[in-house]
Write a structure and sequence with these properties.
561 residues, alpha/beta, 6-stranded parallel beta sheet, 22 helices, 18 strands, globular
Amino acid sequence: MARTGSQVLLDALRAEGAEYLFGIPGTLTLPVYDALIGQPGITPIVTRHEQGAGFAADGYAKVSGRTGVVFTVPGPGGTNLATALQSAREDAVPLVAVTSALADKMRDRSAIHDVDMERALEHVVKKVFVPASAAGIAPALEVAFRWAGAGRPGPVQVVLKSNLFSAQEERVPRPPEFPQPEPLPRPDERALDQAAAMLRAARRPVIYAGQGVVQAGCEREAQALAARLGAAVVTSIKGRGILSERDPLCFGLYHFEGCEELLKEADLCLALGTGFGEFATSYFKAPIPRNLIQVDVDPQRLGRNYPAALGILGDAKEALEGILKRLEDMGEAPLGEGHVRVRAGRRLYAERLAAFLARPQAPPFHGLFVMKTLREVFPPETIFLSDSSATQSWLMEQAFEIYRPRSLLLSEAYQTMGYALGAAIGAKLGAPERPVCAIIGDGSFTMTCGELATATALNLPLTFLIFNDGKYGALRHSQKHVFGGRFIGTDLNNPDFPALAQAFGATGHKVTSAEGLRAALAASLQEGGVHLVDCPIAPDVLSTRWERAAQTFRATGKPGG
């Protein structure tokens, strides 16, 4: 018996290992949902907005290492995905967006949901595939998954006209063909020779490890090379956890205590799978050494933000294996000057932190106290998320250590608000054995709080910690330091967050003391289900990152780290 296009779609998704279909049903996509009934292998995750579905697929992909799949109705369903897809593209997240479109006979007739879905999202995805018949659906899905994970990963769109869902699969002598991604070139052997020679000659090398190390699965190789060279390891934001930030080889982020001096004194930097983005380098202020070896799968990122003395195009794992082989005669080097600076920086910061925490803490809290409390309550394997806001900057504090890769999820490059709630749902589905905690500013949370209904419907154990200062905090900081304290449009009229949580079927906690904060976070871990913790935060108190930016603003009137 011939399959319908809906059955072809679901069979193709199963063949690619898809577990979840994130999205919202619509009249024209109901045939697909009907075909899901009684079928094993794929679970529909019904969100409350398509943007939330896109963020959930993003969170799922980031923690699982698999490709997330989102499915939408024509028109607004598809265009609602634009922000999530661009965020995924900037952060190299493999997604396949199956967006339905009107049948040809309904186009240009003022029909409901009419929009040119073939072109509406082409600038926020890597490729767009449009099968002409039910027989073309499986080949289109297969190549879309290939493109999503090829080279630097990212989102890919498959546009399915709604008439195909109920159409019978045609018998065709030859399946339709779609362009395949070019295979990633192997790292050039001569370039690896040169890289090994440069590393041998270096006396104060630093390794700067990014997300590409995580995606290539070569954390062990990076650690082995660092040990062989006696090199300190600095990570990008998305690369945090490549080495535990308690590891003596790991320095952490650029703005950690002493790291700027470390980079200034280094005579070589090996950068692995990072584009040196604006947020990670504090507005491109990080003093990356001129003697830079950069390894990346994307040729456009080689030397883009910092000139590279040697650029190597290819997979980070293959490049590291090649370099290690060329340096196999070297034993592990003693910890060099960089590690002395790492230890000294950690000791100095620990002393300052202890002095700060020795003072009584009461609401509204300093953000650093909240970060330290979070880190003490939640186990090392916890996945943390945040939105783009002043809140996010607190997760970059040295007191908030990360111990495993895929443990800190952000919309880093695109910096979209409203990300964390939906992404937390996907993260928990992608790693059900790991606790998940989203730290969200009050302004960001109210943008997407309807997704609490998704979380409670799924009965997922999730913690949402709201930084409640009643402000658009990041904007207010700029108004204070750039615009002379003239405030407009940054005050919020917040709801009663615990009552809102309870209305959705979640557990709400209103924090009124330091002990109450710890107790609420501990209860969210122990009791299961969705918990929302309303945490009062002191307004106009800056994280280290924001304070540096504010100092630069005051001194120069220009952005800074």
